[in-house]
Amino acid sequence: MGELGLYDLPYSANTDEIRVKHLYFRLKPCFEKRICFGQILFHLRQLEADDYADECSMDKADSVSSFSLRLDLYCLKIQRVLGFFEELKSFDNFDNFIPIPMKWSADEWCLKVWHEDYPSIDAFPLCIYVQYETESHGPSLLWTDDQCGNKCCLTTPSSVNNRSMMPGQDHPFSISTWEGEVDVPAGYTGILGGEWVQTDQYDWGQRFKYKSELAMPVCTLCLAVGKWSEETLCEAQRDTNPSTTVINGTRIHSSFSLPKVILLGCENEFVSYRQLLSQFLISSLETSISIFGLLPFSQVRVVIAPPCFPSLGFTSPYLVFLSPDLLHKSGSMLRHVSHELGHLWFGVLIGERRWNEPWMSESFAEFVGEIVDRRMSQMSQDLIELRLFLRWHSLQEEMEHTEAEFQVLSTDSCTSGCMEALRPENKFILVHYLKGFLLLSHLCNLIGESDFLRFMRHYVEKFSGCLVASEDFIESFRSFFATKELAISNSIQWEQWLRSPGMPEPIRQYSCREDNILYNDVLQKFRHSLKFYRTRKRSHPSSNPLPLLFSEFFQQFVPEQKKLMLNLSLQEKSMPRRFLDALHPQCSETLVDVEVEHLWLELAVKSKYSPAYSQVIEFLDRHKAMGVYLYGEVMIHSDPELVQLIRDQFERRNDQMDKDTYQLVHSMLWGNE
Q1: What is the mean pLDDT of the segment spanning 491-508?
Q2: How far apart are CA 641 and CA 301, in angstroms?
Q3: Cβ count within 10 A of residue 164
C-alpha cells in the first residue's frame, strides 16, 4: 500500500485477491444503547482475469503461502467469526452445517480473518460469518428523535461510508448482490435501500426483508428505522415496450415506466409533506424518465428525515432521504428534490470509478434537477439565465474560500486509499457541485439543449451499471459529436475545467443579458432603495412610504430575485441600518425558503445587525445541514456578542450533530483549544 496522509481513507480490504459476490445480513437496532446488533454472511469468490482489467484495481496478487481475508470497518466490535465451505443463505440453519472457528484480529480500519489449516486462497472457506455490534459514536448511523419525539436511526452521508454499520469491501469497484433483514420493535418500520420482499410478525416486533439483485458497492446500502406514517403515492406502471439491460453482469428487465413511490414521514407533519410532495415526486420522476430513460427500480421509498439530518438529501437504490429544509410551503426548494431523484441515474445506476471525482454524480444530479425544473415549470429564459448567474456567483465565492487543490474536479486515483476523504470540511465544499454543473451547462449551450439531452440519454444507456471516470464522459461526448459538432467538441478546454484550479476561461466573466427583465428589476430597485436609505434623513414611519413599498416589491420577487438582492447587499462594504430594518420582517422563516433566509442572515451577521441575532440562533437550531456555513460567517465577522450566543447554542445542541460536522464546527468556534 502507498503512504497515506492523516485525512486519507484507507482501502484495507484485499480486493486484489478475493471479492465478495453476495451478502446476507441481519441488523437489529437498540435505541437505548444507540447501537445495532449485526450478523453478516459473506459469500466470496476468487478473482478472475476480467477483474484485473479494471484500471482502478491493484496489481494482481502474487501467490502467497499464508492467506487472510481483510475487510474494511470502523468503530465496530467484532464478537465471532466462523467459516463454512457451504454457502449458507440463512442464519437459522447453522445446525445443518459444520462451522469452522476462524482466527481474527481487528484494528481501527481492518478486520483480518485467517486459519492455519487453510493457509492458501484455494483452501480458504468461501462463506464467512461475522457477528458484531456497532458503536454509538460510529459516524455511519445517525441516532436521534424525529419531529414527533420518536426514536429513529438512519444512514448518513459519512466520510467513512458504511464502515461503522457493517464490515465489508469498501472499494468503488467491489460490488455484490445482497439480501438483508431488519428487526424492529412493534410500531416501527425498518427500511433498507433494496427491493422489499416481505414483513414477518413476531411477539417481539417485526422483521422486514429486502434484497438487491443489482450488484452494487456496499457504500450504496442505506438503513432507516423509525415510527412513520406511510402512503403509496402511485403504483408501479409497466412500460409498453420493456427493454433489457445488463447491469454489473445481471440481466435487468427495465419494464417500469414509473416505479412505485412510497412517502414516509413523521405523523405530525405528514399531511403537509404529502400535500407538497405527492404530485411533485410523480411528475419529477416522469419528467426525468422521459429525458434520461427507464430505471430498473420497481419502487422508490422517500423518507422525510429529522431536522438534524446532516445533508439536504441522500439517495441510494430504492431509498431517498429528504431534509425538511427542502419542504418550504412555497415549493421553491423542490428542485433539490429533483436533484436527489437524479442520483438514481447519476450516482446509483452509473457510479464513480474514482471516489475523488464526486462531480461525476453531484454535478450531473444538479443538472438533472435544473433541467427537470425547467420542463415542469416552463421556465422563462430570463429566469434560466438568472439562475445560472447566481450559481456562477456562488462558485466565485467558493473559489475564494477553497484551497486550490480542492478546486480540481479530476485527479489521479490512489490504490491504497481515497485521498483527503476524512477531512471534516470536505463534504461542505461546493466547488465540485457548481463547477461541474457549469461545465454541463456550458456544453448544453454550445451544442443546444435538445442535442445535448439526446447525448445524455445515450450516455445513460451506454454506462448503466458501470463505474465511470471523467475520461469516459469526455470520450463518449467526443464520439457522439464526432461529425457536424466536431469543431465545437474539439474547442472544449477539458484540462481547464477538470484538472486545473480556478475559473475556466469560458466562465471567467458572466453576466445576464442587458434586456433580462428579472435581473434589471432587482438592480433598479436595489439601487433606488440603497440611495434612499443612505441619503434621506430618518423620519417618522408614517411619513416614510418606502418601507411599505420595499415590502411590497420584495415579496413579489421570485426567490432568485430575492437571492440576487441579498447578494448585491453582501457585496456592499456596509449597509444602512434602516435598509436592514426594512428588510428584516421580509425574511422570516414563514415568508422565505431556507436559502433566502440563510443569505439574509449572512447579511445580518456581516452588518452586526443585532435585532436578527435571535433568528440566527433559531436558524442554527432548525437547519443542521445549512447551519454549518453560518457558523463560519459568524466567526469571520467576530461580533463578541454573537460569538458567545452561538457557542452557547453549540454546547446546547451538539449532541444532534454527526461526527464530521461536530469536528468542523468545534474547530471554527474554538480553533485548536
Answers
A1: 93
A2: 44
A3: 21
